[in-house]
Structure formats: C-alpha cells, structure tokens
Specification:
6-stranded parallel beta sheet; single chain; about 45% helix; 6-stranded mixed beta sheet
Length: about 325
C-alpha cells in the first residue's frame, strides 16, 4: 500500500511538471523577440574607409535584434539625392535609418518631414540647427585641434608653409574641424595663415603649383585626395598630416608617406549606431540620445601600440 502511494505521488509530480512545462511553452512559444529592419545610407558605401564602421554596425545589430540593409550608393551629388534615398527606404518598409548626411544645412527642415526623430540616427553629421536627433560622432573641433598638435611638433614650424585640403565644408563637422585646426595653430603661431585652402581636386592641382612644406587633410576624403596628388606627382618632400581611415591611409602611414594621422574609432561608431537606433525605435517620445565616440592621433612609430591597434585593426581584436 505504501509503495503504491509513493508510486502514485511520483507519477502525479511528474504529470504536474509536464503540465507546467507545456504551459510555459504555450505562453512563451509565440513570443519571439521583436526585430527591426534598418537601412544604412552612407556616401560611397562600397569604399574600404567604411570597413571598421560596418564591422561594428554588424556586431551591434546582432546584439540588438536589427536586420541591416546597407544601401549600395556612390558619392552623393547633393543632399537632395541622399534625402530621396532615405525617403525611398522608409517607404519600402524600413523601420528606421542610420545615415551620414553629406550636407547638414537641412533646408526647410525636410529631414523631419521624411522621418520621425525616433526613426533616424545621424553619424558624424550633427545638423546646423538644434533639432534633437539621435547622433553618434566624435568631437570634430577636437579632431581639428589634434591634427594641429601633430603639425606643431614639426621642427621650425613657424618658418614653414602649410596648405590645407579642407574636405566637406557643407557639414557642421567639417567646419568645426577647420575651426579647431586654425584655432590651435594660431594659439602657438599668432600669425599663422594657411597658404591655401583647397576643397576639390581642381583647386588642389592649382594651388600645388607652389607646393607647401606641409599638407594637411581634414577628413578621410581629403586625405585620399591628398594621397592621389602626392603619389601621382611623386612629391615625397611634402609632409602630410590629417584624418584618415582607409586601408590605403593606414598603409601609407606605415610606409612613412603620412607623418601623422588622426583615426576615428569607426568600429565604436558603427556599434553604438546600431544600439542607438534600437533604443530610438522602442521609445517614440522623449529627447534623443547623443553618443560621443573617440579617436586617436598616431604616427608610424606608434601604430603597433596596443591602443592604436585596437582602432587601426579592429577585426583582429
């Protein structure tokens, strides 16, 4: 009799456990994590200068339940083309977008008409107006100052001519870099004035007829333009400093063709962008978050130090 009771008790307990397990499965089986579809719209998206950014973006998306679509795009002809792509992606079903604007003036406040503030994360492209969009970027004024710091380490810099390839001045970030560079140079050299300020290939060709001692490139595109010119003309005596992030720029730094370079933490920028767009999409109201990412100043001698390698070669770490 006791054995029967024990046996019955064990069977009853097992049945209860099965019922509880089955009930839990029924309640939670249909609860899949909500995923969002996000389009990434960046200028010249196939360029290797975006490689580290994409690595971070994919890592952040995997952790945040984001389906990414990196839109294939060449160099934007202007803001109208970029806005057209953003509008198309949202109309085609994207829940949100991550984008680097080629022009931050936003005439007529058109961006807000295309996408709600909870649907967009801007990278390195803070709007000229205080519009409260979610933003991931480094401090551009500090980048300009950091480039100047490297130039100021040149011997007898007071007696040397400095030419500047300014990059994209249609963005607030671009103008802040230029201001940061000029301010820091003038703090040490009160009479400092760049011998030229070139924005395009044609302007650079013209100005380089009288080559400067030092050439400064204020963004990654400007660095590529400067390298194109210097390698084509075999102008090895010109000292080159600036911001760069392509594989070519890193190679040129290693080979001594670039004397000093500021490199943004592009991996962190991509990672934080994916995490931030998830947060924006889940919270349709409230002020949007701004995340400041880092950068390093590096020379050939420093590029294999641990902290530099983490940013220069993020996929290895």
């Amino acid at each position: 009799m006791n054995r029967d009771r024990i046996y019955l008790g064990i069977v009853t307990a097992m049945i209860i456990m099965v019922i509880i397990y089955a009930s839990y499965g029924l309640l939670n089986g249909g609860k899949e994590e909500l995923h969002y579809s996000v389009s990434v719209v960046i200028d010249n998206s196939g360029s290797d200068q975006w490689n580290a950014f994409k690595e971070g973006l994919n890592q952040g998306a995997n952790e945040s339940g984001i389906y990414l679509n990196i839109v294939s795009a060449s160099t934007f002809s202007g803001l109208a083309e970029e806005y057209m792509i953003l509008e198309r992606e949202l109309e085609n079903g994207a829940d949100g977008v991550i984008t680097a604007l080629c022009d931050t003036s936003d005439p007529g406040g058109r961006l807000e008409k295309i996408a709600g503030k909870n649907q967009i994360v801007l990278i390195a492209s803070d709007l000229d107006l205080e519009n409260g969009y979610a933003l991931v970027q480094p401090d551009s004024h500090k980048i300009g100052r950091a480039i100047a710091e490297m130039v100021l380490k040149e011997k007898n810099v007071d007696g040397k001519t400095v030419g500047v390839v300014s990059g994209n001045q249609r963005t607030l970030a671009g103008r802040q870099r230029l201001a940061g560079f000029q301010t820091r140079m003038q703090e040490e050299c009160a009479d400092f004035t760049a011998c030229f300020l070139a924005k395009t290939e044609a302007e650079l060709e013209k100005e380089m007829k009288t080559p400067p001692d030092i050439l400064v490139a204020l963004d990654s595109s400007a660095m590529e333009l400067a390298l194109d010119y210097l390698q084509k003309k075999e102008a090895s005596k010109i000292r080159l400093y600036g911001e760069g992030r392509s594989e070519r720029a890193v190679y040129c730094l290693d080979r001594g063709m670039i004397q000093g370079m500021v490199v943004q933490d592009e991996y962190a920028m991509g990672y934080e962008s994916a995490r931030l767009i998830r947060k924006c999409l889940e919270h349709s109201t409230g002020s949007m978050t701004q995340v400041e990412t880092g950068f390093i100043s590096v020379t050939k001698e420093e590029m294999h130090e641990k902290e530099a390698e983490k940013i220069l070669f993020p996929t290895v770490h």
